[in-house]
């Protein structure tokens, strides 16, 4: 038994660009992955108890004063063993490390740990891109590029228009515009005025929605809140719901001309039902009351 299909797929995956670090060395940019990330990836892919590392050799190649500090440099050779069922996959790597500290012991400790970590990264890199193998390719084809951030669209000023389309006020903050539009809709005591306010400002609301990138916020975005407020204002007690229905029908008839006005119940301008409609309902109720009841069989 070898590595599972899932493990193979993980090893073939690209290295995320966010894990790639850069440092300057002799005037050149060097790309690398940090030691802690490589070890975390080994735990994720192989399992916490399915791999280990062993330092085969370490050697201090230099030590001495470094200004007011102590310095040291080490080389190390590490073996990484991965258990995959009945077999063990072995990889080895060599690395170097340097240390500089206020005491000689700290300098040697830092240098040795750096060499072992460097050797471990090189041994694990032979398993695939997630461990930094992709960084040995100059083109870095095995690195998944970070998505470039698009330039933010211009925001504001947000202009509030009256029912006639005239500019009433200008706001720099979306929340201020939303508050002013909400107040204007609240004060509308006629359905015609309410819809006129909305029609004159709906394009600004859409632009605001796009600028704030709230398409994915159906409940919490500013624009959806304004739409909800429009609906709430339309059903307030001071506005006749039949007038709302009439207004909505006139809007929809422009969009769907096949619908005939005769197919809908007539609504008078004062909001009352037509006499014919009420008479029909009363006549139906009378017939229902006069219908003879069937006697129960004995």
Q: What descriptors fit this protein?
A:
298 residues, alpha+beta, Enolase-like, domain 1, 2 domains, three-stranded antiparallel β-sheet, two-stranded parallel sheet, 9 strands, elongated, disordered C terminus
- Count of spatially separate domains: 2
Radius of gyration: 37 Å
Shape: elongated
CATH superfamily of the largest domain: DNA repair protein Rad52/59/22
CATH architecture of the largest domain: 2-Layer Sandwich
Mind describing the biggest β-sheet?
A: 3 strands, antiparallel
Strand content: 15-25%
Q: How many helical elements? A: 8
Quantity of strands, as a count: 9
- Tell me the series of helices and strands, N- to C-terminal: HEEEHEEEHEEEHHHHH
CATH-assigned fold name of the largest domain: Enolase-like, domain 1
Average of pLDDT: 79
Low-pLDDT stretches are 214-220, 255-261, 271-275, 284-298
The computed structural class is alpha+beta
The helicity comes to 40-55%
Strand order of the largest sheet: 4-5-6
Distance N terminus to C terminus?
83 Å
CATH C-level name of the largest domain:
Alpha Beta
């Amino acid at each position: 038994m070898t590595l599972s299909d899932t493990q193979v797929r993980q090893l073939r995956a690209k290295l995320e660009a966010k894990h790639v670090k850069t440092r300057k060395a002799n005037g050149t940019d060097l790309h690398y992955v940090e030691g802690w990330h490589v070890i975390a990836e080994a735990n994720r892919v192989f399992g916490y108890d399915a791999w280990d590392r062993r330092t085969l050799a370490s050697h201090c190649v230099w030590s001495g004063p470094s200004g007011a500090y102590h310095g040291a440099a080490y080389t190390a050779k590490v073996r990484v063993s991965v258990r995959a069922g009945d077999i063990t996959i072995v990889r080895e790597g060599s690395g170097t490390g340097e240390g500089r500290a206020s005491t000689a012991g700290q300098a040697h400790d830092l240098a040795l740990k750096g060499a072992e970590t460097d050797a471990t990264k090189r041994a694990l890199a032979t398993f695939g891109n997630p461990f930094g193998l992709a960084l040995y390719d100059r083109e870095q084809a095995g690195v998944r590029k970070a998505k470039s951030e698009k330039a933010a669209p211009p925001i504001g000023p947000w202009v509030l228009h009256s029912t006639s389309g005239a500019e009433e006020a200008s706001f720099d903050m979306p929340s201020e515009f939303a508050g002013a539009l909400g107040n204007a809709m609240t004060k509308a005591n006629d359905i015609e005025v309410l819809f006129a306010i909305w029609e004159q400002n709906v394009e600004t609301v859409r632009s605001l929605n796009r600028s704030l990138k709230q398409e994915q916020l159906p409940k919490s975005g500013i624009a959806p809140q304004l739409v909800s407020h429009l609906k709430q204002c339309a059903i307030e007690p001071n506005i006749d719901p039949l007038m709302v229905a009439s207004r909505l029908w006139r809007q929809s008839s422009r969009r769907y001309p096949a619908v005939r006005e005769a197919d809908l119940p007539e609504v008078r301008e004062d909001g009352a039902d037509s006499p014919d409609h009420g008479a029909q309902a009363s006549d139906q109720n009378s017939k229902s009351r006069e219908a003879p009841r069937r006697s129960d069989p004995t």
